[in-house]
């Protein structure tokens, strides 16, 4: 049923980043539309939590890779729910490390479909109405793999690198028309049961314990940064922002930190 | 006189970015200490505005390039005013474009002293107490010249490039100890009378008119982003953030935007 | 028929970069295999020129986008001609500037297939034998769009950005095994009749005249740099190299060069 | 005594990179002028080796940090020896890792003087004659610290970051005038007794043994790449080139290489 609030659309609304972002934007006055691939119960739980907190939300299962799926969702929202004020593309296709010989062609393509082509399709479907209204925001939860390609990450890095350049081309064309595109590089683990937790399986609890209280990104904190980006007035927009836990070594640094010798002269290491 | 609020120290507090940041942090509960090179009246005006709005502030003239000046200011604040919770290094040495032959050695060195060495000195003086308290923030108002060196910008770009790498080394050493270092790339004009306005002289009013209402960064908006960065919990820190007006072409793009041919195939240009 | 020389395989052998690279490697003792999509006559002309100069070459038409096409070519070469010592991936899918609404989904996908997926397929097919031999080189003729995304370049930049990250993941996995991966950013026009000339059509002659004698990259010069990269001993490998004509403004700079004021102080421009 | 060959000037001519570059350019027909801070015997040995191989060379002790030292050397060469065709700035001020509190202000400044200001001074002194002749080359042996700042590297990274931006500003102004500026990022250990060997002291032999035959950059190989850069025609100039041994992990990758799981799905690590 149509309503008055601008819509915040989350493509990939798990209990981590997507769910927390939806909660934050709902608290800020948006109607949050949560879309995820599976687990109807989990989806309804997230929607209920938002409603219990006084916010407005709805959910839908979505196979983002399927033809016309996102396009029809965007049409339906604009027609039946309300104008999309902000969308969060929160999908990737991280499959763990695979040597090249163990990266099937289909896998490489799927990484591109979900990680890069999906962003193109969403923008293609969503931007015309935003341009007509003269405003809108696209936030993209991205990865370190958009900045550099590690061994074993052929599919994921190619998809992320492509998406990063696409975010720049989209920004170049649409920022002047009032659409804010922000590429957010999540450079560290996120306390997210539906993605990282699932990937780690039974090692998840130990991993969390090892990381400690501030060793992983709190998705509520990231949601706050997403909220800030969406609130920036158009005379002061950020396009690319990195985030990580304070004791996580940034991707550009040697890891672990080279030994800092505070008493004398030590060998700095060859890459200095 | 000592007081209870954490201190927000602005090195380079003009009426633009520095003054607005001071106002925002004062509104957020900090005692703002505004330091600038000259114009005692302007300084007092900024302090009064903050106090009139219910905030707490004080000001001091500061020759940041002078030996021991910033160091003594930091000591004095920690001893007489309160613990520095956050500092904003808001100085550069932009002198306009100069061919190499018109960039005196003294000028090249001054750019380094104000743009790069000053950040080193401030961190050196300020970080030990922050580390002891287990928290603190250093925000650096930086420039596109930290990312790429344009013709005519020998002194400025060398200083900014050095400062960007220094921000990374400081972050690498101190983020694990609870000190948040953020390098903010201001990639566009700022509506700042004391810096850009002064540089443009009598062309300032025409420039503002040409740029239009959203064509320059509103320093109050940038102050809001600075506030957000300082509030990020330590499990979700951003190190590098860019800002620009929405219709400003990002530094990485061709400027002006290449012609987008929406009816047929056009020549993309050699740099694609 | 099998022969003794290592093979230099060019995927995308037009009369510009590909043809000149083939000639250079043939002069250096390789058997050059030139593969291109169409124009059998043009292909034969290039092969004959190499043979007339005393080198060894053969040509084949190749639809690189077609399933199994590159894979079968690699198999055939290894079986019937000789070991591939070096390959040059010289394909992109630059279609000129198109607004998002004029970038059909099929076009976006084709850019990825030719610009990114093709590199994956070639490496997948070719690297096992190179690893077994303990040596090999993959050169990729890349574009500025791999470094930044301009307006109107959605498909091309996404493909190039993806390919750049893929080159890094390939390098990370295979450089330790003796395979040299080099990503060459061609940041300027190339004097190449089959690609740029075709794109410009009847404007080609005027464009060349306007650019002047050193205003476009001489493909023979680029071939020399490719040759150098392939000859680097494995203790001193370059992964990423940029090239441009000396009077072409690098992509990272404002274009045109801001006015350098050599007599006084001038306004540097907002992006400094 | 004046002579006919163009001069190749090496600022920082140790037995590693500088000495090998001098030998290569002398073999290519230049008169090599080797300048180093100390060790007259070592200098004379390098000169003699070049002359014994049939080349032309001379040497001079040079305190590059001293006022007017490089300027007077450039004047003397142009007046008494010959036109400088190419110069190699081969100095840095790598002092090993130091925590901020153990980086004296004087040390931070010295890093800038040798690593950044020295490049400015050399270009300032040398470029006017090159511009008048319409040609010339400046090669800069640079470091990973120009690309990212590791912990403990405050002085070095600030100097290298500044120098990298300076190389871009110099390139922007002088490439159109025929002067080729190339910034070479040496991203790995170099088999160089006078710099790395000295830094490691009695651990040098063990380090070399551990690294193996191709584990360190052979300065003769790097000299070959320098030679190639200096020979590039001006329609095809490279500005930034990286080099490393093939089994050295590039600075942008996680180090060590994340475990590539070739049999199943493995955890990729948080920074992917």
How would you describe this protein?
- Chains A, B, C, D: This is SDR family NAD(P)-dependent oxidoreductase.
- Four copies of one chain form a homotetramer.
- The first copy, chain A, has eight helices and seven strands.
- By secondary structure, chain A is an alpha/beta fold.
- The first copy, chain A, has one domain (7-243): 3-Layer(aba) Sandwich (Rossmann fold), CATH 3.40.50.720.
- In chain A, strands 3-2-1-4-5-6-7 form a seven-stranded parallel β-sheet, sandwiched between helices.
- The longest helix of chain A has 29 residues, at 105-133.
- Chain A is globular.
- Chains in contact: A-B, A-C, A-D, B-C, B-D, C-D.
- Chain B binds chain D through residues 99-101, 103, 105, 108-109, 112, 116-117, 120-121, 123-124, 127-128, 145-146, 148-154, 157-174, and chain D through 99-101, 103, 105, 108-109, 112, 116-117, 120-121, 123-124, 127-128, 145-146, 148-154, 157-174.
Please outline the major beta sheet of chain A: 7 strands, parallel
| Apparent shape of chain A | globular
Distance between the termini of chain A: 59 Å
What average pLDDT do the residues of chain A reach?
93
Question: Most extensive interface: pair and counts?
Answer: A-D, 48 and 48 residues
CATH architecture title of chain A: 3-Layer(aba) Sandwich
CATH homology superfamily name of chain A: NAD(P)-binding Rossmann-like Domain
Protein name (chains A, B, C, D): SDR family NAD(P)-dependent oxidoreductase
Organism (chains A, B, C, D): Altererythrobacter arenosus
InterPro entries (chains A, B, C, D): NAD(P)-bd_dom_sf, SDR_fam
